[in-house]
From TrEMBL:
Pfam families: SBP_bac_1 (PF01547). The lineage of its organism: Bacteria, Pseudomonadati, Pseudomonadota, Gammaproteobacteria, Vibrionales. It is found in: Periplasm. Gene3D superfamilies: Periplasmic binding protein-like II (3.40.190.10). It comes from Vibrio stylophorae. Part of a binding-protein-dependent transport system for a sugar. This is Probable sugar-binding periplasmic protein.
Length: 418
């Protein structure tokens, strides 16, 4: 009782600035798309549902990556005030399905032919172990992108880096010229995302899977891990102490304004650039994170639908069908910077970066190189993922934490998980 009240209070402090006042005959959609680019994409959804009955109230919870939103969702569930719709990712879907609070979407999926239209990966992520749809997928984001300010790169006479040593050298050149080498948000997941990119860049898919997906203690305590941590520390020495207190999208504006050379991260960065009318690829171009060209590290946004008895079943189904429609999914992803989860959407209106993401996804899927993001809830159960992210962030920020101490902490997380 005491515990749940504490969580609820913490949650309220996130909610106050953004939530709308509850109305009769309305249903809530809880999400963490608060950056301008994300809001532009969300607008596609609110427009499409503008005349729905019940009306949809958007409940925004600040904090990219969704950690705050997940805390609020838990608090609302404990208080019995679940939203009708909640934005969710990967492993969290199973957790909510396991406690029986969310809807089975099989009837709608059958009527709308999800089996035919969705990529197999989208099916796998949004179905439970019994093969039932329990979530509706919306986006397929590529996480292993290096976003580059092209005028700055040319001014500094730097070739697009092809591997970690070249990326490091390029960042050193920028730093010596007084330019921020890598723009970075100060959230923990922003830093953990650098680590997963480095792991893949230095050691490839098998090691990534062993260390960050299977949490294999031998991989965690290996020379490969020590090499990755060494590179991670080099990166922190280059940028770490100068991380301004800012969300990821402010880091993107730094990049767009030519105040920083690079940003590493998912293609929601593209959505942000598009909302700010930045020329793609002339001003900002996308390159695969050096050393990961053949890979596609994925993250997928989905919606889950809570079992709500204040809205009639037919209205609920109409809203879910609308959200899964080809038109909405296309318009949403055009703005979001992601690629659609439906295979039947024509990409000719999409940006060159989105077309390259789609081609990279197809190729990586065929060669077994589409891999889940650890940082963004695609690989690990939520508790292990948060613990890993937190330890990696502390290591990045505190130079007195040794590689061995971090390795031991990661192994303890792995053992708690096994
Ligand atoms: C991710 C989410 C994306 C994006 C990002 C930053 O977790 O999948 O849609 O919005 O957070 O907020």
């Amino acid at each position: 009782m005491f515990k749940s009240k504490l969580i609820a209070l913490a949650a309220i402090s996130f909610l106050i600035p953004f939530s709308s006042v509850a109305k009769a005959q309305s249903a809530e959609l809880l999400h963490w798309w608060t950056a301008p680019g994300e809001q532009g994409a969300l607008h596609v959804i609110s427009q499409a549902l503008a005349s729905s009955n019940p009306t949809i109230d958007l409940i925004s919870v600040s904090g990219g990556g969704g950690d705050n939103a997940m805390t609020v969702l838990q608090a609302k569930a404990l208080a019995g005030t679940m939203p009708f719709i909640a934005q969710i990712e990967g492993a969290h879907i199973d957790a909510w399905d396991a406690i029986g609070l969310i809807q089975n979407l099989d009837t709608i999926a059958k009527r709308e032919n999800w089996d035919q239209s969705l990529y197999p990966l989208a099916k796998q992520i949004n179905q439970n172990d019994q093969g039932e749809y329990v979530a509706l997928p919306l986006t397929l984001h590529r996480m292993n992108w290096l976003w580059v300010n092209e005028p700055l790169r040319k001014q500094l006479n730097i070739a697009p880096p092809k591997n970690w040593p070249e990326l490091l050298a390029a960042m050193q050149t920028a730093k010596s010229a007084g330019i921020t080498p890598l723009s970075l948000g100060s959230d923990e997941w922003q830093v953990a995302l650098l680590f997963e990119n480095l792991t893949l860049s230095l050691h490839g898919k098998d090691f990534y899977q062993q260390a960050l997906v299977q949490l294999d203690p031998t991989a965690l305590n290996s020379d490969k891990m020590r090499q990755t941590l060494h590179a991670f520390r080099q990166l922190s020495q280059l940028v770490g102490r100068h991380i301004p207190h800012q969300p990821w999208n402010e880091a993107t504006s730094q990049l767009a304004k030519g105040e920083a050379l690079f940003q590493i991260g998912g293609d929601w960065i593209l959505g942000e650039l598009l909302a700010a009318d930045v020329a793609i690829p002339d001003t900002i171009n996308c390159y695969a994170m050096p050393g990961t060209e053949q890979h596609f590290v994925y993250n997928m946004d989905s919606f889950i639908f809570f079992k709500i008895n204040t809205i009639d079943k037919k209205s609920q189904a109409q809203i879910i069908e609308q959200l899964s429609s080809r038109t909405l999914q296309k318009q949403f992803n055009l703005k979001k910077g992601a690629i659609p989860v439906r295979q039947d959407i024509d990409l000719s209106d999409f940006t060159s970066c989105q077309k390259r993401a789609a081609a990279a996804f197809t190729k990586a899927s065929e060669s077994g190189l589409a891999i889940p993001s650890m940082t963004d809830s695609m690989a690990l159960p939520p508790v292990a993922q948060r613990a890993m992210t937190n330890e990696l962030f502390r290591f990045f920020m505190q130079s007195n934490i040794s590689e061995q101490v971090l390795i031991e902490r990661l192994i303890s997380i792995a053992q708690a998980e096994i």
